[in-house]
Amino acid sequence: MAAHDPTDVWRRPERATVGPKPEHSRNGIATAALRIADDEGLPAVSIRRVAASIGAGAASLYRYVKSHDELVELMMDTVAGEYHLEAGGEHPREKLLNLAHQGRDIMHRHPWLAPLLLTRPSMGPNSLRYLEAAVSALSTVDLPGPAKLQTVAMLSAITSAFVQNELASAPGSGAVDGAAAGRVPYLVEALHSGDYPHLAAAMAGQAHSGHSDEQFAGIVANYLAGAGVPG
Amino acid sequence: MAAHDPTDVWRRPERATVGPKPEHSRNGIATAALRIADDEGLPAVSIRRVAASIGAGAASLYRYVKSHDELVELMMDTVAGEYHLEAGGEHPREKLLNLAHQGRDIMHRHPWLAPLLLTRPSMGPNSLRYLEAAVSALSTVDLPGPAKLQTVAMLSAITSAFVQNELASAPGSGAVDGAAAGRVPYLVEALHSGDYPHLAAAMAGQAHSGHSDEQFAGIVANYLAGAGVPG
DNA sequence: CGCTAATTGCGATCACCGTTCGCAATTAAG
DNA sequence: CTTAATTGCGAACGGTGATCGCAATTAGCG
What we know:
Two copies of one chain form a homodimer. By secondary structure, the first copy, chain A, is mainly alpha-helical. Chain A has ten helices and no strands. At the A-B interface, α5, α6, α7, α8 and α9 of A face α5, α6, α7, α8 and α9 of B. The structure holds a DNA duplex (30 and 30 nucleotides).
């Protein structure tokens, strides 16, 4: 197991110097897994499923990826490459807001992403590039280093959480929504019971009128302002 | 399948009117599952494991719970019962801040909770009671109903995300930390590569000096203020 | 009292999962 | 041309959620 020594995906060379040419690539596998996740949800991304989708045996995938978790890590970093990091505004707050909007778009394109981002931070090169850009946007701000990191982390967290809320109340393509789908009948019964008057009243107002763009911008801007990021 | 008709856990009567007395209870099962999750992490909470821990056969659990997801739902609502909803301050912001602090404590007691809260909202009676209390804290605030709900949702989301960050950088009892454990070597190498100067600089500052209590209070208070909650 | 009908506990089983092992086939280097 | 490393992968292992069918138990009713 010579070339596979590093426990780290990103330190491991993709191609060995000896032996037959690999018939697949890390990138191809990640792309295939990504398509499956986008179409059928993250649970559908099993080793066997991905392997079959690229015409490989199940065990063969382990030549490219050490574990299923590593596959997910690859997927996350691949998607992190969708950021356009050069773009941005003048003031720090504008730049971060821009990044947040991009993040929101990415999470909408890949509905499986938001939960993962909150659970396990990605550490691949693309993710690091994003992090660098975000921290770099704070270079003119007088804040201790760790505070900057915390700010960026909370920014991502807020974005993920907001998108999660959006996806939960969205019609959903039938793949990801299922969570609280069947529990609705109990909800209406509970609300009619009179035990939760304020809740019922709050829900009486019609569903949010679709201007969630401004809501998002407002929340993020507000957080950044409070965190001491000028804009 | 007469009494099991309702697809909803909370609408289903626990005890049937006919037949032998159940040897266990929904509550007992939830408690057992809870202990396992607290001790060994959520992945250890399998149907068989929980069944064995209460001296029951695996298939027997399905007499009390329709699926594994439902078990988790039970766990979440059980833990939601740990809130002290009567306590609270004068102003709306104080009340919500109080709830947020309680939520943070609960998530620290049950490290598996934070990720779940962000992924799937709980809908059990205890969770609804919490929601009612939170929305009720906003009764004097002039805000449309949906906006109040959104505020409360974001409050929970921010709390979960913050706790998640805390737990990630905590020593961890060995059960939940493992996420980005082995990926550290690549991180240091990447930082030394010079490709991420701002990131490296930001990480040079010593780790956050433990005053995360004020950090949390500050972030939440700031968000609430921005959301239009007087305090 | 005894019968009926519903419900419980659960062993066996299915399909699927991540992962490991061993081996034939392939290839670059010496 | 030999050698050593690497690839692809069928088969298997242990564990998962879930279903089925059956014996045992029990409340209500005639």
